[in-house]
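In the previous chapter we treated chains in isolation. Here, by contrast, the input contains two separate entities that must be folded as one system, with a combined length of 738 residues.
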Amino acid sequence: MAQDGQRLDVVIPGVEASSYPITIGHGTLSGVWGEILQTWPKHNPFVVTDSELVKAGHLQTLVGAEKVPTFTIDPAGEVSKHIQTVVAIVERMEKECLGRDSIIVALGGGTVGDIAGFAAAIFKRGVPVIQIPTTTVAQADSSVGGKTGVDSSVSKNAFGAFWQPAAVYIDVATLTTLDDRQYRAGLIESVKHAAIMDAEYFGFFETNIDAILNKDMAVLEQIAATNCRIKADVVQQDPTEKNMRRILNYGHTIGHAVESASGFELLHGESVAIGMIAAGKLEKALGLADDDRLERITNLLVKLGMPIRIPADITKEKIIDLLRTDKKAVGKWPRFVLLESLGAALCRDGQWAHEVSQDMVERCLDELY
Amino acid sequence: MAQDGQRLDVVIPGVEASSYPITIGHGTLSGVWGEILQTWPKHNPFVVTDSELVKAGHLQTLVGAEKVPTFTIDPAGEVSKHIQTVVAIVERMEKECLGRDSIIVALGGGTVGDIAGFAAAIFKRGVPVIQIPTTTVAQADSSVGGKTGVDSSVSKNAFGAFWQPAAVYIDVATLTTLDDRQYRAGLIESVKHAAIMDAEYFGFFETNIDAILNKDMAVLEQIAATNCRIKADVVQQDPTEKNMRRILNYGHTIGHAVESASGFELLHGESVAIGMIAAGKLEKALGLADDDRLERITNLLVKLGMPIRIPADITKEKIIDLLRTDKKAVGKWPRFVLLESLGAALCRDGQWAHEVSQDMVERCLDELY
């Protein structure tokens, strides 16, 4: 594929300034700044990134010799995804005399995108944000859809807003500096997209697994483009997550509980991998699937180096407790997204999340130790 | 007018869940809670109010014997309109185990409405807010339109969002506990509405000035209803303030500068009164108005006890300096909203804010000492 890569237009119904382009390529990062200045000539750019990205040289690649006001989140990662980081960003912007004509450029993984996107949503009642995701998770997932959020001192994602980006630039070459465990775990959101929406895409993963593990640029571009198409398709149908968008939660209900129970020792993607296996067990128990389907999913996750069993030190009781406090829980017990077939989420009576008894969930969890 | 009062429906184009009712009456506050519980039976209410409202007995009137989780802003007023108050509200809601099915009920003046509205906009990516404005300013202005915002440690309204209320309940009887200076200054937003949009309404003010100063309930209800109709009309035409909504800024450009230069010794309405006189001088200087128009405006403002001259200790230079840093300034010198006639803002070439030279502004300011 050419360096100028692919371009996709996302339109969110009912949202003002609702169309935004996603540009995908490899080795394209150095050209992005020029394009930003050309596309938004009347806006004053402000970059939000993190210390890891600076260390990897990506900030330098983006802005080149230009002196651009920048906020570097330090330390990088979840620990900084806090409302006080957003307060610090806004106050820095004010000290740089930036106003309503600012545009925030978010360079980094999901955490940077969440923090910078939320800062953009609430700075002076909202300024545009450009997302430049640099991890497998962020490129697959968090840069499209407009969900932003940060933690309070009490809980995760207590603060947030729906804020669609003005544009998304994906350079898959930024993935080469990502550590291998993060890289592989980040691909699980893509496997999830395939499982719920696109059987052919699932086959693409199976066929190209070696190229994927070797970070083949052409294959990664194709993955990025397919992810964005699937995510955009779902988000366009349900921009504020009233119903159908819940299918993106496949594998996440049990996945979140396992991630939290591990004290975040397990990565998000690793936990979702376990959650997808658990969902597969539920589908079998409910008579929705044969053995073959779960086997294909399990085989792919194993090749990607994912855990497929719950670590012994995480008790079933702990997971059940956490499921009861799930943020999407209705009547204190969550509903579960399930597959109709590989490549299609199950919809019954217009609902995309389904009741499953606690008893059945417990029996499926028992099989995962 | 009957206790069940008047009802107005506001529809904001392009905004989801965009229609909301405004109910106006006197002595109606004690019935509002029952209506909230009936209209939003699946939501968990959380009240945000301030210590002055509690002292005046309005919180008690609203919730009666019910035990409702409440955040009381203390001290009341602008000093608490800070991002850290919003953080405290959100963390209190989390500690009360409130989630996405919360509804925030804002009982108070403009500051309470701004703080609570912004908290609603960003709690868990947004929950509904019900506005119960209790001051002349808030009833005329800040409860309709969806503008919310709080200050940072660097500047005013650094944080904010457009967040339309789910409903607005106005009980004009709450105005009887307001101190007289606040009451009168708060009416200036209503005079502004009349000046920019409704000549007949301006006449109503002139005719009923004694009843207004005596807080006649029927007249106050009529003022509240007319304000909401005018404000809703403007907001519906331009929900995110791209153009026409700027007319609501009439008198505010110079008004804000005077208010700020006084160190907030002058109330907002008092400053806007001076700003309206200044706008009238500009209109005369530009050949847009005869003497009679400014005289009528001046007479009404005087009867309402407003200052019509700039206090001697506020220098013209200070005002000019502040105008340069106006948040709406384009190219470092703001544009001004002007009147075409009493009851109609001036629109030229599709623009509602107009270029006026610094020289002319200075000459008009000179006349105001």
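Chain A touches chain B at residues 14-16, 83, 87, 90-91, 94-95, 99-100, 118, 121-126, 147-149, 152-155, 157-162, 240, 327 (CB under 8 Å). Chain A is about 45% helix and 15% strand. Compare these points with the single-chain example from earlier in the chapter.
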